[in-house]
Amino acid sequence: MGYLFSWPGKIAYIGYVISICLLVCSVFLPIRVALFFLLTTFVGLDISQGQSELISSVESFIGSPWRLSVGPVTPGMLMMLVYLVIILRIWRVKILSEARYFLVYACLIGVAGFCIITLRNGGIGVPLSVVVSDIRMILFLMLSITMWFTFFEENPDDIYKYIQFIFLVFIARLLIDAMLLFTGEGSILSGAARGSVDSTQWTALVVAFFCMYNLFHNQKKCLSAILLVLSLIMIFAYMTRMNYISFILGSIIFLFTIRKKRVIFWGLPVTILLIVAGFWLFNKYMFDDFRIYVIRFRTVLPLLYLQMETADNFRYLEFINCLGSMLGDGSILTGRGFGGYYTDSIISMGRNMVDAFPAWSEETRHFARVHQNIVHFILKFGLIGTALWIILWLKIIINLWKIRFSKTEWESLRVILLAMSPAVFFSGYWSSKGIILTGIYISLSAHIYLKCNKKNKFTSKQSLS
Known about the structure:
68% of the residues lie in helices and 1% in strands. The chain has 20 helices and two strands. A two-stranded antiparallel sheet has the order 1-2.
């Protein structure tokens, strides 16, 4: 009880009370209002840091719906219950056909793989929580796509308001991380401040592309420039390689997608100057941290040349052991299902794995996760399931690329969705929080294409900017 009456304890206590209020409002208020409260929960931090990573008392004591647990019930389970209640209240749900094939296959092969591996090895081989987590991710994706796609289809005139609100939530998420970074109260990695270790750091890219679009179209230049510099600083400070790669790929897609090609000649130099300004601020006020950021960023270059062993030898050993063992027993085609794991029987990954895997993995040498999206999908669902997942994303990107909004405000959303596709694809599957946002992304992209394809024009005359 002494913890609750301390100052950090009071902060957490207030945060958890607010979290409970948000979840209760999401369940009992009218659907259109409840979804605003549900989206507000994404401002909160979740937990995804390694055990050896230093994390400050301030960040640790921030109350959030994504840190709210009741006994064995995890935050993800609580949020899933909320989604189930909302779907039951909507009642008449609509299933997105493009996602149906992957979801059905993932459920079937997940259960089949689990049964086969359990019977063959005489036991599960991993804690039951791993199996539950794998099942939860697929169910969360299914629930998120179903709920949001149904809502968008039933309330097409309200989409604009929710998109605006999502952007505001992402900006708030960015400002919290920036506050933790510049006050030095956020998490520390390798001696450098990195703001937070929230699993949806990639939402900073949404803010960056949104501001870039505004600058390229001469809209809200001052505010957009400030937010762009801040988002670029945070992307750099997060020290997450997939954020770096996603931003590079997204920027290329952005430049090829934007309609006003002539603004590239002045918009691109302005963006480069803003990036330089961000680097200058880092170098001036956080020189020691800046040096560590640069060292981390340099590890992206070997990845671009597919030299994984040079960039991150530990990740390279993961790939070799996972894919090698699956080739050996033939499970690479269909995957190993829910709770599927691999061993380091091909090349030992050593004993100091405290940041990458839980303690039971180091003891049993059973590893239920690969720290790369595609290979992780192969482990769980095989080449067939991974192909279905990639086909779904290719269809989304192709459909967004094909449509054109003739001088409407929704063209900006199309550009941002396309630019964000690498970030959501590579980083959106690692947490319950991220998988819900992935469902929103897929639902929104599909809805926009279907409406445009039916020649059903949006009625809103406002701008996203």
